[in-house]
Amino acid sequence: MSDTIKFETRLEEISKYSDILLINCPHNNIQFPPAGIAYLCEAVKNAGYVPRVLDINILLLQKYKTTGLTEHWEESKYEYLWQQEAGYKEMRAIIDRDLQLIAETIASCPAKILGFSVNMMNERCTDDLVTRVKQIAPDKRIIYGGFSYYHETLAKEISDLPEAVAVGDAEETIVKYMDQVSSDGSIHGISGLFVNDRKGKESFIPSSFSTPVDNIAWPRWKEFHLSDYTFLYPQLQMPVHSSRGCAWGRCTFCSASRSNPGYRHRTSESIFEEIKYLYDNYGVTGIFLTTLQVNGNYEQLEKLCDLIIESGIYFTPYGQFTIDKRMNDKFCKKLHQAGFLFISFGMESGSSGTLKKMRKGYNSRIAAQVLTACHNARIITSVNLIAGYPGETEEEFQETLSFIEENQNVIDQVEVVPTLSIHFGSELWSDPEKFEINFEPKPNQWIVNDWISFDGKNTFDRRTEKQKMIFDSVKRLGIGRGYVKQKLNFSEGRTHEFKETSFKGLIASKLDDLFPRDKALHLPRHEHPKVLILQASSDAHLVAFISELHAARPEMVMDMLVQPGAVEFYSSVAGINEIVVCDETNFFSSLEVNQEKLGMLKEKMYDTVIYVLGNLPEGFYRQVKGLALKICHGQVIGVNIQGNMKTYFPQKERLPQASNSMGVLLNSE
Fold it and tell me: 623, CA 20 to 30 Å: which among 185, 285, 462, 503?
């Protein structure tokens, strides 16, 4: 099915009967389907209503993939352009015709209620689409919800486009709203529902946030085409809510404790039931736990690990953890055994003094211990840092740089380094004098970047300098992939960006160990080394790896063995001579691969087989390596693109499984 036909088909589907159409506009996360909408779908279905879903974000991304415009979704430099007024004009010019067609289709659909999931990035596009719909079908009842309206103060500042806004958890709110619309049409007096009129502003009743999370039905995803979300990530990964709220709730810069008060966690059995459902029905093993702290409740997490281990299924859950001294060697080893191969920490600083000012609840010594425990358990770690916290001294900033250097062997990646932003709902926002900072938010501005300290030293420009110093330190030390994945900050039209560096140099300097120029490892029948790359990972970093490999050794003849859904993803990658498509979608899950295909691959007499790994379980590694050994006539190489580049190329070791194969272990083991 072509992307244009798929786009038209998805639009045709909403012409079927529904009571509510739930809509997601660009720009939004492109790796997962929208979990918030999925939860609402389940809630209204259980109440006897018929929902339908229209994810415009992923549909437009797919449609434009042949035009070269997908960078407007993929690259971080475009994210804030979707939010800014001037920037959105650029985006609107691209999607205008399709957006009008979508508006006309929505206006004629049977659903009387249109629900829009709104976040900071898609507010302008959502308002644009709603304006068009209302011009055609003014009787449609429109309700907003989502991250942009996590607090009633935010809801009260919106335009008059929606008749109501669901504030906070919306599962119960949306059902009560639909009940009232179906009854007498009056929607006042529903807790958590801000009615967008004068009376609503006076009578808003906040949600109690008291519903046990286990009582909220988790998504079955029947209203979604999950294959749409394998466009950039052929191996489907799915979001799972394991808790709501923040177990700590004291960080001065964070608004999470106000957006979702309290901490409510699901039982381990409930979480496991959901991920087992995803495995049984969709073959999903990659699970993103969408919670502020995966380790917010240790008993829950340990029990979940036990359930996963006992199941014998190779899940690969991951998510955001908090630094906690209870993450010792024993606990981290259990995490790894359960498939937690990658952990992201919102560490924020390497200075104990700055961490105390942030009220993070730990110091740099504990942070180093936790990172070391993860490293010892062979868990890949990523840390986030903040540049320029209020009150941070120059000495404390230097302590952060020293921490990075001293712990470079146990930090696999420094992922995000934003300059500190002041968020609505945070303590920094509500009590700026306490932190000796000045800022003046503009109307409807909920994040301020261009603040200044009382002494005039902590400025936006100085924070940007610190940001770059951290970036340069990470690059110099070769931590992770030698880059910081940096999202843009914006203030009065000023943007700052640090682009990722390539693998160049890191790979080229090691290639002589793998393919010596003076002692060719390739077979005599080949004029140049013949290499097969097994697609055990599917992302932009693998593309970068292949491109740099090709640039460093253009004489290599490189083929790829890929899953059927990944053909288009890799078809235009520079350096790939031939793409061999495996017969089975999940061909790495079993070594019983089509013998005819195996024989064909063996006949090609590959000198080297490279299997490139991501965050996958050990059992998967063994299966992929076993497949590589069946194919290869020379050396087998494993590359972990998610790990520390400095640990990619240790000593060569002989693989016992095949005496004619030289194994070069390139991952962090």
Answer: 503
